[in-house]
Write a structure and sequence with these properties.
It is found in: Cytoplasm. The chain has 15 helices and 16 strands. Helix 3 packs antiparallel against helix 11.
């Protein structure tokens, strides 16, 4: 049978490669024809609540009128122009907005294509900074176990090499320095004993390798794909002091946690310190177009500028794309123009109440909620394919990973719609 004779789904399964999918045994795949608000509509007319915010980015819902209008309006005047030697109002206006809402010390903005690229940029910044100030031997990185920072080459090297998704590439990737994830959870009392709070291990690792380490990179407070684990921000406060003592930069990967998802505008705001470099993506454009950025402080930017060759050695073709900048500005205006904090708190409170019965199920290891993130952790791995097979009946699209059945719902999700999501999560916890 020729490709022309295949149905849309048959063509997809025979020729299109989906993320983390076995092409020889593709799982249930749905053809989406339309999306609006919290719903995606399939080719058979079924409407599913997108409980994943399409991998955590669609915080204002699908096809938000303000964001789509911004893209349409921009399309009529300037869809794209190279950012080398040129600039434009959408990039400048977005930059002004970012400086309003991000940590005060982060004054330099580097636009890029995706979250993974944002991490690549951050790591290159750290290495180039150390080289510029006369520390060229500092080109390795420290990080914590169970972290996830993307699928591109250098980003994979700071994902957990044993339990993460990229262990297959051990030996090919740069070897980095890993310490245990912070053991004290966000709602637990802080323990000042370095042997109990993880900082003793961190100090030992950083001191032993200080002359080789450019930066310490981690997801602040919330580890996403590595397990939806929420840890105490005091670990970050003290890690900042340790990094300063040893001349190591601090990078926060806020791709998943930025823009209100945790109940704070940025997870950094749980801390009393700020990083040298921050990575932002996902919700930056409200999920309407791929975009990300890496922000840093004047110390790093001026350090790179004062070294050899003086130029930051990175420049994506679609850097500063006007459509993406316009979408991002509209998304951030939407977010800050509403009571996002009250909205996220209400979502969290409802999930706390409605997911609580899962604690009584025999195969459930933990239930936890932070902001608009809800997690049922199972004692065994959960099949995303089996969850997809129940989506039509539940009217909810959930995609578990590892041992976690979780949701990051759009902020526009109504209480009734959220109840459908939590009911679906409980059903999966009982049946899978």
């Amino acid at each position: 049978m020729s490709a022309a004779d295949l149905t849309q789904l048959e063509f997809d399964q025979q020729h299109l490669w989906h993320p983390y999918t076995n092409v020889a045994k593709p799982g249930p795949t749905f053809v989406v024809k339309e999306s609006e608000g919290v719903h995606i509509t399939l080719d058979d007319g079924t409407r599913l609540i997108d409980a994943m915010s399409s991998w955590w980015c669609m915080m204002h819902g699908h096809r938000n009128p303000a964001i789509t209008k911004a893209i349409h309006d921009q399309l009529d005047t300037l869809p794209h122009v190279m950012f080398g030697g040129l600039t434009h109002d959408p990039a400048i206006d977005l930059g002004r907005k970012l400086l309003e809402i991000t940590p005060d010390s982060l004054t330099r903005i580097f636009y890029c294509d995706s979250g993974s690229v944002s991490v690549e940029v951050a790591m290159k910044m750290a290495v180039q900074y150390q080289h510029a100030i006369g520390q060229p031997e500092r080109k390795e990185f420290a990080t914590i176990r169970s972290g996830y920072h993307g699928d591109t080459w250098k980003a994979m090297s700071v994902c957990d090499p044993d339990t993460g998704m990229h262990h297959l590439f051990q030996g090919a990737l740069s070897v980095q320095h890993f310490v245990s994830r912070p053991p004290i959870r966000i709602h637990e009392d802080w323990n000042d004993d370095p042997a109990q709070n993880g900082l003793g291990e961190l100090r030992a690792a950083l001191e032993a390798n200080a002359q080789k380490i450019a930066a310490f990179i981690l997801e602040p407070v919330v580890q996403g794909t590595g397990g939806m684990y929420f840890y105490h921000p005091e670990y970050l406060n003290q890690a900042r002091a340790l990094c300063d003592e040893l001349g190591i930069l601090l990078i926060f990967d806020e791709i998943a946690t930025g823009f209100g998802r945790t109940g704070e505008l940025f997870a950094t705001n749980f801390c009393t310190v700020e990083p040298d470099i921050i990575c932002l993506g996902k919700g930056l454009t409200g999920g309407h177009i791929s975009f990300a950025c890496t922000m840093t402080n004047d110390r790093v930017a001026q350090g790179i500028g004062g070294g050899n060759p003086g130029l930051f050695m990175h420049g994506p073709t679609y850097m500063g794309n006007p459509l993406a900048c316009a979408a991002a500005k509209a998304s951030l205006d939407l977010l800050t123009g509403q009571d996002w904090r009250g909205t996220v708190a209400a979502i969290g409170e409802q999930m706390q109440a409605e997911l609580a019965p899962a604690r009584d199920l025999p195969n459930v290891a933990d239930v936890r909620v932070l902001g608009a993130i809800g997690v049922i952790e199972m004692k065994h791995r959960v099949s995303a394919d089996e969850a997809h097979a129940r989506a039509h009946e539940m009217g909810v699209f959930l995609r578990p990973f590892g041992t976690n059945i979780y949701t990051m719902p759009p902020f526009i999700t109504s209480p009734d719609q959220l109840s459908e999501i939590t009911a679906g999560m409980l059903r999966l916890a009982r049946e899978l």
